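Quick one, probably user error.
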């Protein structure tokens, strides 16, 4: 009788906690969106914490940590698998770094107050592709993940050279600002290139490091999200008084503009893939292969928040208040991940049950 009672209580306890598991599973699969939302909320609620963190340069630690981890997680052998699809990858790089930034000029024509919301989205549009979500979503959709990785790595490396020029050409002239190109280039090298190389060297130099990182990829992705959250946290904290003056409807409009931008890039790259497929051999073209098309469209249509953050920091107010510049881009970054996740649900193979976390 006693055993039955214990068993009954145990069953009730298990049943009572069953609702926790779906929540934990959801949180584990959506670390980045949840952490970014939490960082912005914390910055608005307790700005003194963010101001103190900024005083001790935690906002600079964030981008450095992100790219050290990115270097640690970068598998060299995967890049070789993308060689066969090099024409697709080449067009993807051209789209990411040279074609899509032209849309920044259209964005700057929009009248919205504060102007930093529009300017921030225009700068965001000049960025390379996301560091990991494009790769993860490509894998989920059954696309060429090696090609996605190659486009991601190369566009972010070349972006160090090209981003300052793109911002100067497409954004600075539109808002009448002077861009400190040399300072921005130096900052991008220090916050992106050096830590990325450092992480990669650590991975290749010590076998135990690469094995540990590969076993704990989910942990390192979570750390990446935490490092990324430091910047919006400090910048929103610093700009809280200005943010509270912004009407909710204006911020919703800014979110809508970010979503519209991503949709525009998806349509643009989809049309480009179809056109290139037609003129290069039709169904036999390398562009017509579904796995290559998926990789190109997803990766070339996303823009990265961490590099945007690394760019904003050294500008020292050249384009306005940094918190106002970054906030709509945080929303745009989240929106593109969420929107593309729905697209992937239609594209993914039915037998693909990999649980890949996007970041």
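Nope, works fine. Designed sequence:
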């Amino acid at each position: 009788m006693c055993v039955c009672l214990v068993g009954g209580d145990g069953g009730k306890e298990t049943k009572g906690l069953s609702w926790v598991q779906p929540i934990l599973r959801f949180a584990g699969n959506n670390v980045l969106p949840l952490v970014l939302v939490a960082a912005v909320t914390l910055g608005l609620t307790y700005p003194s914490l963010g101001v103190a963190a900024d005083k001790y340069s935690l906002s600079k630690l964030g981008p450095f940590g992100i790219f050290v981890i990115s270097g640690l997680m970068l598998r060299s052998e995967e890049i070789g698998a993308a060689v066969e699809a090099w024409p697709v990858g080449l067009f993807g790089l051209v789209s990411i770094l040279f074609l899509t930034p032209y849309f920044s000029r259209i964005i700057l024509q929009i009248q919205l107050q504060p102007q930093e919301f529009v300017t921030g989205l225009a700068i965001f549009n000049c960025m390379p592709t996301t560091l990991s979500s494009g790769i993860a979503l490509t894998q989920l959709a059954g696309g060429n993940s090696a090609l996605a990785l190659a486009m991601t790595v190369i566009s972010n490396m070349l972006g160090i050279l090209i981003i300052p020029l793109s911002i100067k050409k497409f954004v600075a002239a539109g808002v009448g600002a002077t861009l400190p190109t040399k300072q921005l280039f130096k900052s991008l090298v220090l916050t992106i290139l050096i830590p990325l190389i450092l992480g990669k060297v650590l991975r290749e130099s010590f076998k135990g490091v690469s094995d540990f990182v590969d076993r704990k990829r989910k942990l390192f992705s979570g750390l990446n999200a935490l490092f990324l959250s430091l910047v919006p946290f400090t910048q929103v904290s610093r700009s809280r008084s200005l943010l509270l003056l912004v009407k909710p409807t204006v911020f919703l409009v800014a979110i809508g503009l970010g979503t519209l931008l991503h949709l525009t890039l998806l349509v643009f790259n989809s049309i480009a893939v179809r056109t290139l497929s037609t003129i290069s051999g039709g169904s036999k073209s390398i562009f017509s292969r579904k796995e290559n098309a998926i990789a190109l469209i997803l990766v070339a249509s996303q823009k990265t928040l961490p590099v945007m953050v690394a760019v904003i920091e050294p500008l020292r107010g050249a384009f306005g208040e940094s918190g106002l510049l970054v906030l709509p881009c945080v929303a745009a970054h989240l929106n593109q991940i969420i929107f593309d996740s729905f697209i992937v649900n239609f594209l993914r193979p039915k037998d693909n049950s990999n649980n890949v976390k996007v970041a």
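Confidence is low (pLDDT under 50) at residues 351-359.
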